Amino acid sequence: MLTLGQLKEATCSKSSYASGFLPHIIENCEHFSINTPSRILNFLAQLGHESGGLFYTEELASGSAYEGRKDLGNIQKGDGVKFKGRGLIQITGRANYKAISTALGTDFIVNPTLLGGKNVTKCSNVQLKNAAQSAGWFWNTRHLNELADQIDIHKSIDTGNNLVVFKKITKTINGGYNGLPDRLNRYKAGLSYFL
């Protein structure tokens, strides 16, 4: 089972933030079969980057840049701001909010802030749970366990197939390679806790 030390180190988080998320992340790792050292380490390194060390549960930008983005399902005026990135892996856009509402049985279209409120210090326990659950849901629906299974944690993450696969995971989450060095650094920070 995931420990506080593993969670803290692989996300480069403060102990207090990691403590708040620990039961929810354990529950989601179990539910979504994020259950091998490579799967957990890769999941946590990505979460750590996306949330700024388990701090942010909502993106800092207003979301106006997503206005009218049909690829995100933002078809109504105000959708960009309403459905900006939330959760530990920033769920973005009306289409994703609708899909996750169906999957998790909570209406995030009506209550988008239930996915996360600004940051960990301002979140209710329900928001913390949903922020973690949304990350597990996203990871699972994008089949990222299968990619994580291709990473050999006993070899360098900086070269060869390990780097190729890590970049694929990053691109699936981010749409590009934003923050790749930081994601890699979080993976390396947590690595000894999973060997």
UniProtKB/TrEMBL annotation:
One of its GO terms (biological process) is cell wall macromolecule catabolic process. GO terms for molecular function: chitinase activity. Gene3D superfamilies: 1.10.530.10. InterPro entries: Cell_Wall_Dynamics_Protein (IPR052354), Glyco_hydro_19_cat (IPR000726), Lysozyme-like_dom_sf (IPR023346). Transmembrane segments: none annotated. It holds the Pfam family Glyco_hydro_19. Residues 47-146 form the Glycoside hydrolase family 19 catalytic domain. Signal peptide: none annotated. PANTHER family: FAMILY PROTEIN, PUTATIVE-RELATED, GLYCOSYL HYDROLASE FAMILY 19 DOMAIN-CONTAINING PROTEIN HI_1415. This is Predicted chitinase. It comes from Chryseobacterium polytrichastri.
